[in-house]
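Milestone M4 deliverable, item 7.
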Amino acid sequence: MAKVQVTDLVLRDGHQSLIATRMRTDDMLPICGKLDQVGFWSLEAWGGATFDSCVRFLKEDPWERLKRLRRALPNTRIQMLLRGQNLLGYRHYADDVVRAFVQKSADNGVDIFRVFDAMNDIRNMQVAIEAVKKSGKHAQGAISYTVSPVHDIPYFVAMARELANMGVDSIAIKDMAGLLTPYTAHELVRAIKGATSLPINTHSHATAGLSAMVHMKAVEAGVDIIDCCNSAFSEGASHATTESLVAALQGTPYDTGLSLPLLQEIAAYFREVRKKYWQFEMDTHLVDTRILTSQVPGGMISNLSNQLKEQGALNRMDEVMLEIPRVREDLGFPPLVTPTSQIVGTQAVLNVLTGGRYKSVTNEVKNYLLGRYGRAPGAVNEEVRKMAVGDQEVITCRPADQIGDELDKLRADIEGLAKTDEDVLTYAMFPDLGRTFLQERAANSLTPEPLLPAEAKEAAASPSVYAPNEFNVTLHGETYHIRITGSGRGDDTERPFYVHIDGVSEEVLVETLDEIELTAGVNTARKSGDKPGPAAGGKRPRPSHAGHVTTAMPGAIVDVKVKVGDKVKAGDGILIIEAMKMENEVQAAVSGTVVAVYVAKGDAVTPDQVLVEIQPE
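Output delivered:
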């Protein structure tokens, strides 16, 4: 029997799962020489959330990262995770964008493309797979594994057959939530082996503590490739440990042939690197078996917890956890993976906090119910659909069939800032974020978020000395959620404090001043260039009547659709808010005239603030 091949995930899914995708390229490159010696089937090093993280937090060009890794790994295939028609963003892109993105990824160093769709709708994978094949690279079709009344072995085998007919080079069983159990894995691998002649790759997160057993049973069933992660970034929400599986298979017909001492050298390097990123460590248990009953991935639980905590509603987590399966059933049992995990999770939070199921419906749920994400795996609750989108037409075609070519418009939109086709594609993935990145690059002002020093960790770990505080601060009409994690040493006039501001770690220097004044109800230090108040020129009032438009959950303003003097009717869309990467339309509760707008695009907002004021008729 041929030996089992290994894909190591340390450069992508390992740090994405455990330190919020924050590892910098400069910390990857020094160890690439040794990684290149191991003999992995592939190294997953790009795609997933790495593109977003590079642009948003690290201020690195993700394309440049790929090129540098390609040069540093001349003997090892680089693999990426691609969300089919969603690419690396959160919407469907036109076919010309998909083809261009795949080709440029191949040109810059990607050898293996793992293509999946959150709905398991292979129509959303077809163009990406065709583009990979045209580029001459390896197309791996991924099955998003989940558990529901409509997801069984025959369902997944039928999907595998369709992918094989589409021309993929291998098939991945992508267990993104850690729901796969060992004997089910054995049965599934054997069934797909019997239905296709393609190599099979298993991918299973260790959240529930089952992934090593899943891989072992899959190996016994004839799996060809297993995904695992170097021990420095393995287990918990990540994956089974590479060294452990290599050791377990040594001397058997499944021997990987990899050098355990070399893998341990690599682990020693990454253990030291990980210490630099302590501020981003996931606050999760090593093993969390709740997922086996809730089917909610660990990362999704953490995200929901943060959202509820910001609203003082953490005590309602149990209600949200009960609501998630109900929403998932209403939507036809989509697998919980980006972006469907955010779609389901955000709607569940809204259902709990707004005092009525589907009283407020996110734009993403509306688009989902209109068929704009693809075909739901099971039957959708028609009452919910009617409540959310009324009599709007539900599409049955492939969603991208309704999107015209976009590349020329994207090039025109970013002309002058984009120097290459890769820059245009960066803008395409994240228009606002991408534009800002390219502007900062042009101005030579790209600055990565800070890595806090070791003394900040020591301070945060000493609550008896540095008691953490958590609060919302409204400044110049914008509200920030601040959690103090510690403080450092300073002189008589200046002292550093280490805080999380809206979830982002920062170092704040607090300086004693002679005078602090109160302006328009907002505390402001004397500083030239400060701007007064929110969009309407004053402090946001607290909600007190039906004409006060508020949000059900904290987020950021994406669009303001009204201005002072506008006439609106109850139910009209007033604002678009982004929360948990999902957009939610905020509607007017009464008919009347807009008399004040307290927010602008980009403002951070919370449920206890008035965003727009309507004078009722």
